[in-house]
Amino acid sequence: MQSNHINYVELPAKDLEANKTFFSQCFGWQFEDFGADYTAFSNSGLEGGFFRADFTSRPQSGAALVVLYSDALETTLANVERCGGSIEQPIFEFPGGRRFHFLDPCGNEWAVWSKL
User: Fold this and answer.
1) Which of 12, 14, 102, 115 has the greatest number of beta carbons closer than 10 A?
2) How far apart are CA 68 and CA 108, in angstroms?
3) CA angle 75, 84, 35 (to 5 degrees)
4) pLDDT tens, 40-60?
5) Side-by-side strand order, sheet with 109-114
6) Euclidean distance between CA atoms 5 and 57, whole angstroms
7) Separation between Cα atoms, residue 24 and residue 43, nearest integer Å
8) In what order do the strands lie in the sheet with 48-52?
């Protein structure tokens, strides 16, 4: 572990079970529960957790946007939809790549990007 590097991220989730199912099926993440109101995720590139809460994490309300990487952007978008996520912004180009934004089953906004 490196000092002064981002090590962990925590996000709200109204329905922990729905988010666990979505992220494990869609992205292959693994989960470990710590009581009824918290679950930690791993195998995601950066470890973190979901805590039970009645609010969401959205950039337009001041939250940070968590961005995942994909080598196959269209396949990932289709997989997000198949697993129950909703597309917030379809694939668009930006300097250096392409990306899309989606909402997880609890309404948190995420992005997935790929190089051109």
Assistant:
1) 102
2) 14
3) 120
4) 999 999 999 999 999 999 999
5) 66-69, 109-114, 97-103, 86-94
6) 22
7) 10
8) 9-13, 48-52, 38-42, 30-33
pLDDT band at residue 1, thresholds of 50, 70 and 90?
Answer: confident
DSSP state of 10: E
What is residue 2's predicted lDDT score, i.e. its pLDDT? 86
pLDDT score of 86 more than 90:
yes
Enumerate residues 6+ apart whose C-beta is below 8 A from 54. Answer: 12, 14
Assigned token pair, 54: 């009645």
**Contact present, 50 and 12 (Cβ < 8 Å):** yes
CA proximity to 11, closest of 68, 52, 60: 52
pTM of the model: 0.95
